[in-house]
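Review box. Two proteins, two foldings.
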Amino acid sequence: MTPDMTEQQQLAKPNRYRIEALAKGLDVLRLFDETITTLKLREICDRTGIPMPTAFRVVATLEEGGFLERLPDGGIRPGVAVLTLGSAALRGSSLVQLSEQPLRQLAEAIGETVNLGVLVGDRVLYLARLRNSDLVTANIQVGSTLPAAYTSMGKLLLAWQDDDELRHTLADHDFSRSPGPNAAHSIEELAERLRQIRRQGYAVQDEEVAAGLRSVSVPVFGHDTRPAAAINIAVASSRHDVASLRGPLRERLQTTADDISRRLRAS
């Protein structure tokens, strides 16, 4: 930094290493998620602000590389190359690798679905999922995301955010579309639940994601004071009440989380 240039001016300078065409391609790929699986070219333009001629070339380039796929009706969706990259990233994650054995042992011992997730914006990204075939839920799999405000893992990870950070994280969240019968209907209601979660050190989801589904989640810590991830046990409400989640299942889950945390700190 030159003596006559402030830190703010330095940060405001354009990145001379930035490749604009690549940045636009990444912006297009980021449009797709669990809820937005297909878009038309005009929608891509509207959502990114990229002019139509440029968007056409970006999409065509990504399509040629297998990162996008064009459907007969003109829709555009992620291609196989994106899935390959995502799978490689997950397989290479030290968190996933270190968690695999403890999670598998837990799943086999209790016969219920076990998940590992991290917070990405206002959603929980599932990094590992060992599913009990009897659990009736949406088609959640590794790489899926769900709104953090309603999941036990999401609420647990949000509980470590202060009020200002929480409001920033959930600035675009629409509480009027709460999916389950017991879901929070405002950020104030959620914030009160999060304070209780932080005090007790674990989170319960009682038919907030969907009717008939409950779960309990505990944090996994690495070298930081904030959780590096969360793990949970998901069950059908017909098999387990909230008391069993808070008691025996949580205790088994906590033992697994402590094991994973030790592995992370030692890695």
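Next protein.
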Amino acid sequence: MSYPEKVYFGESGEVSTVIRPENTPPELGERGDGIHYLATTQVTRGEFGLYRVMMKPGASGPGTHFHRTISESFYILGGTVRFYDGEKWVDAEQGDFLYVPQGGLHAFHNGSDAPAEMLLLFTPGAPREEYFERVAHVTAEERPAFLDEHDSYFL
């Protein structure tokens, strides 16, 4: 395996670091139950998308689904997140890491009576922000095309 192709061709580097303070409110939802857009695919030029997901006690999540073009990685920052790995449900706790490659069945929710928090990484980057912001408001007739557009295939 080798390094990817060069993306930057300058000779002296550039000032381009993005800093997001911890106290920045979530872009979607509210403190304690929302999604923070840490690194969108627009910011990373399509390399990845990184999100901080905060779930209140008993928060639901997506049902069993898979993606054809993107992988998902989850790192549990706190609490317990219940994950379906395609065969069984497992409790992921602080410090646990889960990787779901393209095609991998998965689902998750916070089934506990305590808050939970995790990092969610999509690779390569995809415009997931629109998915997060619109999925709850899509009509039944719009849903199939919306899910296909956002590489989400539910069972």
